[in-house]
Amino acid sequence: MSLAALATSWASYQASLWSGEQSVRGASSAAYRAKSTRASARAGQLRMIDIGLFAHWMDAASHGDSTLARFLASRFRAEFKPAFDEWMASRPFTSPMAASTPFALPAYRVAEDTVAARLERSADEESAASQSANRISDTYVLDAVIMATVLFFAGAAQQGHVSRLRVAMLLIAFGACALGVVRLFGAPRA
Question: Is pTM, for the whole model, over 0.85?
């Protein structure tokens, strides 16, 4: 019975530690997800700036206002310029093979998209770790229940007057204790 009592305490302690790990990882996942959302929103804002400037440039270029077109092109963001230059090199106004816009080219990238994706992966990793810690915590709770069952049957066996019933209860207690100890030794520790 002493072993069962000690094992119950140990399982409860480990369940508590793993529950804490679950909470920490869950909070970390939420923080990464919030940062990813902010980076994604920022990427969208930057993309809208690029689209807006490009639309104004197209309007100026189509109306033959080269001064305004040059002015707008000088205001293009550094991330947009390589795609725009590649697009212009493809002679989009005369070549049917040119991409419809610079945004369709692989050269067009918004760095915040990469940041958002990296943060999203980190959030997913932390979420998976949180779920894993939850499963381990649940396993330890079950182990504590198994060991508490041992205490119940061992205690009940001492109170019974029918010897066969006492033996059956002791066998159940012994079997549950063996199962619980094996499970506890196989479980990860926090």
Answer: no
